[in-house]
Design goal:
By secondary structure, the chain is α+β, with helices and mostly antiparallel strands. Helix 6 (196-215) runs antiparallel to helix 15, helix 7 runs antiparallel to helix 9 (273-293) and helix 13 (409-420) runs antiparallel to helix 14. The structure holds a DNA duplex.
Amino acid sequence: MASSSADPKAYNLAAGAYNCPDCTKLFARPCDLNKHSKSHTRPFKCQHSDCKYADLGWPTLKELERHNNDKHSPNPIIYACEYEGCDYKSKRESNCKQHMEKAHGWLYTKSKSNGKQPADSSPVAPVYRLKPGRHPASASSTPLLKQSPHILPVPNYHQDFTLYQDDTDHSVRFDDDDENTSHHHDAPQVIPWTSPATRLRRNGTMIERFDQTYHGSQPLRVSDNPVDPSLANIEPQLRTSAAPPSTSEACGNGGTNTSETSRRTRSSRGPSRKAADRQRIRTRDAKESRKRLKPDPTEILGDDAEFTDSNMPCIFRHAHPHLYNRETRNKSDPCHTTHRDISTLARHLLRPAHGLGVDPRMISSFKIQDNNYPHPRVGLCRRCWQAFFDPLEFRNHLDLKCEKVSKGKREKWRIMYDLFTPLVRQHNEQSSLLQDLDMAGQENTAHRTRGSINMSKKAGNDFRLVSGTVAPTKYRTSVPSSSSLENEIQKLREENRQLRESLLAQGPRGESVASTVHSSAVHNAFEMASGSGLVSAPRMPHSKDSNSDQESLVGYMDSQSTDVDRDGLMSETPETFVRQKPGHSLPSHTTVHHVPTSPSPLQVESFQDISNFSQPSANVSLFSARKQPTSLADSAYGTCTDPRRGSLGEPGQAGCADILRGPHKSWFDNSTQQRHDGGSLTLFGDYQFGHNNNSSANNESIHNNTPSSSTPKVGPNMTVITTQTTQQQPQQQDFSGWSNPNPFATASTSQPSHNFFEDASFDFFMAAQTDCGEETGGYNPTSSSQNFIFPSM
DNA sequence: GAAGTATAGGACTATGTGCC
DNA sequence: GGCACATAGTCCTATACTTC
């Protein structure tokens, strides 16, 4: 309920979340709980008494309005398909788009940019057109285009597979008069998977960008920082141009750029419109006067076309544009938006796309699920803005009330940038690489210090990194060597060569795409579509052992596949999952999770002692170990209600992470066959927790071992550990007799599994790792029985 | 295909804080 | 006390995605 937000009892300090009194969901913020509570109260009632929504109501006014347009409007807004010869019409814009996408192969930019054209996006815009006179509210802002779906006809080799024979972007463009726009390479298109030709083009783009970045102006040297090519763009000492817009200027613009639509449609809440306008004018005037009085003290980064105070980019995208390439990683689309406030940016970093631990007090990467682009393990206090590289020290710091240090938003942005965006080597690199590691670490330290010194000079701050806080060797950040990047690019080059050959061999356009499925390169291209390795074109064989793109440079950073990416996987999941045999019941309170095929032993939380881990190769590529997505929060667009999506869900739901985390657990070390008390658990891997139905009936069924339509699914390579109590030796559940063996399973190895576990001291950070505005399943510390399934490694 | 539900980020207001 | 700024909380739009 909305009132719960103000109820201190609803605030769970341990979990850092607000409990919904009407269900079991937890929220990081009261406003999120408030929003959620409307899904229970559904306060927006339909005015038509004969409508079922007169009683049921809708959670939001927007949904009520949409319902009215759908059902009760005498003159509803109609969206018509713009393709010639198609008379499809819908009252929903999104449905119309959906239709054009599915029926006509329309490619468009899926971006949550709030209607704004992303800075680096192509001019590709929706093809649909609002019917004149039907939608006056938006018609003025929506270009009524001369519709020309020139992309038709496109041979539809597959329903979702559009292959362009040539390398031309066939998307309809709206501003073709912009001759400076590169339509050829910069059209961000999101399609379920990538055709070989598109893949070829994208690889080419990546290679081109790599060459420009690292080989363009000067030869690549070992001492060059290959990770942060954009860093130079924001180094103040490198600037000679005029100062960037001041904070006041930016804020003023931000205020006056308020969407008029938003103002018109904003519900009547808070102060009156006149009062709000007065305040806005007052604020604007005040800020303008401030601008005249003194310069922006937070002048840190200097001018940059991409960086203004109201236009702050995602630190990760800014640091690694080649990794957050929306052409190859549609999941990174949210990273292409910019932020006006640090709080908004921090909120963004909380998203599953990055997975940092963020709360009002701190930002932490201690708990981030590394893949093959490990992050520095850093905790940043948002009060004193001191960085910590030791999680225990960090936690101790947060337990104390430190002195608040005022910093400007640029300063903060820079601190976050410096701390979190460098990539690090695996912490268990073999000694043969230690020299490189140290060298790179020193470079990185220098890089950070350089920026910090400037901050110190210009803002007089005492950013602790300047004053000698250097990450311990164990946690010291480093960067991938240039040779590693070269190797990855070389892989792309080689793959492109194969793609070209494959496409040439494929013959004229129109030939069945099936002719390419046996080409490993093309297959890899499908695998690559998201960089996640989870995309498999339906009807295509899944090759677990394929040396696919997830191992390449553009694999990913820490993001995971999008839902679109994972469609391919889900098309196969009915085969990969195993259902319980009739009559076969699980032990009481056993919870079953799906864990994909064996994660790499490199996927470990890095701050534990993993020195005894075996390493496949001393010279293993930084990018080579990825086999499956590992983040629990697995999608930038995650939701808790779908197993394909990875946001933290409520107990009993797929993707529910926190239910498996928390203090006071007992866990079983699969390698040593020993049980350990206490500590907390983090399972990495794309697993399903029980089932994806959050109904109470199903929750009941899972706890009572009652077979239901959502009987717990079991994935490959799993070992079920049942710990009835913290005092009992766990028992191992044998699933060998279950049906439907995983077609992709591979022989288990004897890799130790204790890398799943973490010290209890890190529990704190889990509390913050909730998806903003999303539900998290809270671990119930009162439960006396915790049951886990671990992948056999 | 229609309808329902979800997330991401923009933008605004209210409030807290430090400084003059 | 007023100003400037930071931030939390909230509402909103856009749109992705699921379910039926």
